[in-house]
Write a structure and sequence with these properties.
single chain, about 90 residues, mainly alpha, 4 helices
């Protein structure tokens, strides 16, 4: 069984890796969440646990805003994942 802390750290680090890279001259354009938090997320499970909901919210907000159809598909797939997970826990 995988350690939950390492799983969350890896998940958050991978999500942060998908953010674009910004140069110093583009600082005002960079989001609060981004690649600059990758190192911290790999070594601090508590930090990863706290920002995971923020990352998911950000991803959904941006996706629904830019591509509503893809956002709906993502939402349904995540819903199915959690449905299966909680059914297996019963």
């Amino acid at each position: 069984m995988t350690d939950p802390n390492s799983y969350i750290c890896k998940l958050v680090t991978n999500l942060l890796s998908e953010f674009p890279t910004f140069k110093k001259s583009q600082f005002k354009l960079s989001p609060v969440l981004g690649r600059h938090l990758k190192l911290l997320s790999t070594i601090q499970p508590e930090f990863s646990k706290k920002i995971l909901p923020l990352l998911v919210h950000h991803i959904f907000t941006e996706t629904f805003h830019e591509m509503p159809q893809i956002g709906c598909v993502l939402s349904k797939q995540i819903n199915k994942f959690f449905e299966k997970h909680f059914q297996s826990c019963e």
